[in-house]
Amino acid sequence: MIDPFLPPPRPLRPVRGMAVAVLVTLGVAVLAQVVWLLAEPAFFAKLIAIAEESGTEGAFALVALVPFAVLLPAQFVAAVAFVLWLIRVRLNAESLSRVPHRWSKIFIVLGWLLPVVNWWIPKQIVDDVWVFSWPDGTGGGPTVRRGRSPLIWAWWMSWLLAFWVLPVASRALASDEIEELLEGPSAVDVATLACTVMAAVLAGMVVLRITRLQESRLAPSRG
């Protein structure tokens, strides 16, 4: 239902540049994780040598923080780029359709941070942007299937596996034995990386699809 009290629509704003930033930062974050997984055994072997030479385990603990100093910033930058893009396409979607979205704009950020509800709020925000970016406002399918994009579902399921389900399983199965660290990544680590790569690829596809939809609506106004 259209809300008669909605403010006048804003002019559409370009999103292509922000989409490129998302794709680049996602690629860097995934590459950092792949490099770390491959280098992990050699890295811990070096840690052991440093700890033995210094005669203290403090050196081991200190150097063990190095991968997180690389991985976490790369993931953080990718997350910020994605959220900034999502804010822009959400504002455009509000201008393209006068039908209210399910969640207030504040949840574009809070939806990722609040426990439990962060399992579905971000997906629903992307669902609504997807639906209202199409010329007919149906998400590219019959009205009854609004927001049920297989692409968005695939992205969201792979994201939940990569950043919630498998990391929890990995911590539950983790061992403090140095010998196991030197043997290489576990099956759960490999599965987590595979889901991370899949989530990044699918996220990139979602970003590209919504960006193209909105840019196609923006094009006539440029002329």
Supply database-style keywords:
223 residues, mainly alpha, 8 helices
Describe this structure in words.
This protein has one domain (16-222). With 223 residues, it is mainly α. Helices cover 73% and strands 0% of the residues.
Rg for CA atoms: 21 Å
How many distinct domains?
1
Mean pLDDT: 82
User: What's the tally of helices?
Assistant: 8
Amount of beta strand: under 5%
Note the run of SSEs as H and E.
HHHHHHHH
Unreliably modeled segments: none
What is the makeup of the main sheet?
Answer: none
Q: Which bin fits the share of residues in helices?
A: over 70%
Can I get a quick summary?
With 223 residues, the chain is mostly helical.
